[in-house]
Amino acid sequence: MSVEASLQELGPGDTVKATHPIDKLACSLGTDTHTDIQLRGKGIAEVHATVRTTAKGIQIESVGSGRLVINGRRTDSHVLQAGDLVDIGSVRLRFHVGRARSQSGLRPGESELLTELAGFAETVAQSYDVDTLLEAMLESMVRITHAARGVVLLLHEGKPQVRTRKSARGEKDRELAISDSIVERVLKTRQPVVVSDALSDREFNSAQSVMDFKICSVLCVPLLVRGDLLGAIYLGNDNVVNLFSDHARDLATVFAAQAALVLRDAFTIRELQLSNAHLTQQIQRMNFGSLVGACSSMKELFKRIEKVAPADVGVLVEGETGTGKELVASELHRRSSRKNGPFVAVNCGAIPENLLESELFGHVRGAFTGAVQNRDGKFQAAHGGTLFLDEIGEMPLILQVKLLRVLEERRVVRVGESHGKDVDIRVVAATNRHLVDEVRGGRFREDLYYRLNIVNLTLPPLRERGEDIGVLARYFLKRHAEELQVAVKGFAQDAERALHLHRWPGNIRELDNRVKKAVLFCDTGTVTAVDLELDALLDGGKVESLNEAKERFARGYVQRVLDLNGGNRSQTAKDLDVDVRTVYRYLERDREEDIVEG
What we know:
- By secondary structure, the protein is an alpha+beta fold.
- The protein folds into five domains: about 5-95, Tumour Suppressor Smad4 (Sandwich), CATH 2.60.200; about 110-270, 2-Layer Sandwich (Beta-Lactamase), CATH 3.30.450; about 295-460, Rossmann fold (3-Layer(aba) Sandwich), CATH 3.40.50.300; about 460-535, Helicase, Ruva Protein, domain 3 (Orthogonal Bundle), CATH 1.10.8.60; about 545-595.
- Helices cover about 40% and strands about 20% of the residues.
- The protein has a six-stranded antiparallel beta sheet with strand order 2-1-11-10-7-8, with no helix packed on it. A five-stranded mixed beta sheet has the order 4-3-5-6-9, covered by helices on one side. Strands 13-12-16-15-14 form a five-stranded antiparallel beta sheet, sandwiched between helices.
- Strand 12 and strand 13 form a beta hairpin.
- Helix 1 (about 110-125) runs antiparallel to helix 2 (about 130-145) and helix 17 crosses helix 19 (about 580-595).
- The longest helix is centred in the middle third of the chain and has 41 residues, at about 245-285.
- The radius of gyration is 35 Å and the shape is elongated.
């Protein structure tokens, strides 16, 4: 007896949109056009799951990190029962079993084939290690064909290479004479070959290997997956002729076809594991605590952090929004003598002006409306540790006066209180503004600037970090794929190009957000420029010319030297060894660009 089983794809109201028959011993499900059951929807990997006929019944298993939900519960493997609901990404399937119909029984050898396939499936469930699968596959093939010995050959750079060998007695090291001519024929035609007596066969008896090794019975079948040739399985006996029949060939072909599908999945998983391991090693070589980078400006930043962290002095971190200023502050704290103390962060631009003083310095009960109890501020909370003042350029002038006094006296007076309290802290401040310009414009106190800016650390924008963009993108992709449990392999070529064409106004924060959203909505297992919403760059975007890159660098460098000289153009021209008119020219271009952008 047998059953007609299928997976019904459900639509709104549980209506059946499509019926996918399970008419093979093993079926693959996913978005790839080569899968047996192709699905379309969100959150589905290229090869997401397999459905196999085992000794236990019809069993569905996830492939790799593919998410599989059966009857509302997450699982990696499940023996299907009639009516089971299977959720793969956004697609819902229902397992359907038709009426049983009588059969005349299995052909000789088919029962043994099913048993071997069931055993192989159990091996697959326990491990996706390629060598383990190859050995299990070859052992089964030797048994079902009654061969004396067998060899698995896999293609490497287009040439067959022996990967594993087995004898009927389970030996691994005994040599099996292989006919290169027979292997070449199978790989070329992609069709199985049975040779009853190679020494008497007109096609192969003149082959050198046949004559040298006196090869008798041979059965060789290709390992094919949807047209992709992985290699071949070579089975033989050097003493018995007419060992393999056409029926043995059919059994071996069926087994090889199912095993090849599993092997391809194993190769894919192994490739992902190696890729992830390589990426992890690459990031470990490039990271500096929580900071990641290998470009020259980041390496210089790491050196400065390492030198200044042990020194208990104030540090001003400058850089555009999203470049990682808080990570720098955290790394300074982690490498300092205060690492066992608290690290307290305050965003001065996110707190209303009328509350900022209380937030920083604390208040006593009744100091203002709503002050119902005494409360310490962030300065007291950071006692013995580090206080990070982010967006310090947003602080009102009146509070800058009080902050300067606290930094000089190391004593905090709460709002509404007359006496102060000593605090032992290190202050690290950060801003996305040019504080020199703010001081020049009267928006930031000069004395406070010099109190904060004992050591200056400048973070480069992401667009100036070259290959760091790709490394950071792959780092975020790996992290979010694991968090969201989505099977995403990497970036498509158009995505890699778009990543380097984009100017990244939001810097690392923007990159992180774009990659996370792309991982969430990616349908193919490979993130494209469309997933990153950067596809428009591929039409109108272009690689910056060398002259444009030089000009952009020169403008930035002139501005940095000008800032170091407190806006003194004559001194800047002297330091740069150029005419002062050159400095004016670059400043004028910057003003023109600001007007255009504004």
